[in-house]
Amino acid sequence: MSLVRIARLVVASVGLGLSYSAAAAEPESCPGLIASRDTLFSPVALRQDEVGLTFVGHATFLIETPQGVRIATDYSDGTRPAVTPDVATMNKAHSTHFSYLPDPGIKHVLKGWNPAGGPAYHDVTVQDVRVRNVSTHIRSSAGGTEYNGNSIFVFETAQLCIAHLGHLHHTLSPEHLKKLGRIDVLLVPVDGGYTLETFDMMEVLRAINAPLMIPMHFFGTSTLNRFLASAREHFPVEFGTSASITLSRATLPNSPKVLVLPSH
Predict the structure, then answer these.
(1) Which residue segment(s) compose the domain that 219 sits in?
(2) Residue 249, helix vs strand vs coil
(3) How far apart are CA 120 and CA 151, in angstroms?
(4) According to the lineage, what is the superkingdom (predicted)?
């Protein structure tokens, strides 16, 4: 049974944004084949055009697809959903974003860095969802740059493209934006210090221009409110009453907005 509590966003629909066809050496950007493919009827409490999203805490969300695939983002030893996901994505900037001992029942554990060096590369299809990544850099412990130490993971399902920025440490280049393609829902680290400074994060949000942006990775109300004060200069801000929401293309906002979810 799905963990999603059916709490719908009652907002107007939005037209299709721009998409980008990547070169053969790069993963096709959103919407790809999975995002445009018809899905089968699912026995869980989701229609074929709906995706469940639950804010578990810190940088971890549980994403549930119409066919019942479960994905945990930035899965760690301290923050993980109550159910075993089919896919777990991880990043390495801090131990709160990865697991030393992931549940052995997870079929796909996707690291946002390449232990052998160079960028990580993932483009995995699991039933009705495609998961791919765009590599970014992080600050090293010595104060320099660790190239390709983070990944923005993109989840394509039910005509939606959901991106998790991970532990983002820098603004995005035109090449990053091309690889991302159209993003409908953006999961955003908003602490303003450990990740990207708030002013620069606003640049990222405006560049991606997703209809729905959901904050994560904040440490109490003070860091969240600092982000929201800046966000209100550019976007409307709303507060959800449940950690779980149901998303679909038909209920995306007409223009970008920030939705704050309580953690699970």
Answers:
(1) 33-255
(2) helix
(3) 8
(4) Bacteria
125 strand-pairing partners: 130
Global model pTM greater than 0.70: yes
User: Which tokens in the block code for residue 39?
Assistant: 């899905």
The residues, any chain, with a CB within 8 Å of residue 149's CB and separated by 6 or more, are 91, 92, 93, 112, 113, 136, 137, 138, 140
Residue 28 lies in a domain: no
Is the residue at 230 inside a domain? yes
What six digits make up the tokens of 176?
Answer: 């990053």
Q: Is residue 144 helix, strand or coil?
A: coil
We report the CATH number of the domain holding residue 175 as: 3.60.15.10
SS3 state of residue 210: coil
* 34 three-class SS: helix
pLDDT tens digit sequence for 191-232: 766 768 889 999 999 999 999 999 987 877 888 999 999 999
Question: How many separate domains does the chain show?
Answer: 1
